[in-house]
Write a structure and sequence with these properties.
single chain; mainly beta; seven-stranded mixed sheet; 1 helix; 11 strands; 3% helix; 50% strand
Length: 129
């Protein structure tokens, strides 16, 4: 079994930066070959896709609202996935989740939550205006 744990969330002013990390433990080999994604959920809203990266790190995809501001990366040797967030806006405030996609998928263009079968507990990001 694999567990994912996010870290790096916090309170930041608009225009600031945060770096989220997602660490995998357990049967790590089963995560290193999977697409990994970041999602977020604001109060009263549905969980939404933010960014994803394929197993090798050669391909990434992000939602339009974060393009040019957020960067997803991974280090399979360290079993970690990161989300670098710059130029943060108040509308980025949400709980951010790391997730591992089902192994049947190999693409980074993977937006549905149903494509991911392992989730972390989430980390809160709050951006003040």
């Amino acid at each position: 079994q694999v567990q994912l744990v996010e870290s790096g969330g916090g309170l930041v002013q608009a225009g600031g930066s945060l770096r989220l990390s997602c660490a995998a433990s357990g049967r790590i080999f089963s995560v290193s070959t999977r697409t990994m994604g970041w999602f977020r959920q604001a109060p009263g809203k549905e969980r939404e896709f933010v960014a994803a990266i394929n197993w090798s790190g050669s391909s990434t995809y992000s939602t339009d609202s974060v393009k040019g501001r957020f960067t997803v990366s991974r280090d399979n040797a360290k079993n970690t996935v990161s989300l670098e967030m710059n130029s943060l806006k108040p509308e980025d405030t949400a709980v951010y989740y790391c997730a591992a996609a089902s192994p049947i998928y190999t693409t980074a263009v993977l937006t549905p939550t149903t494509a991911y079968d392992i989730w972390g507990p989430g980390t809160q990001v709050t951006v003040s205006s």
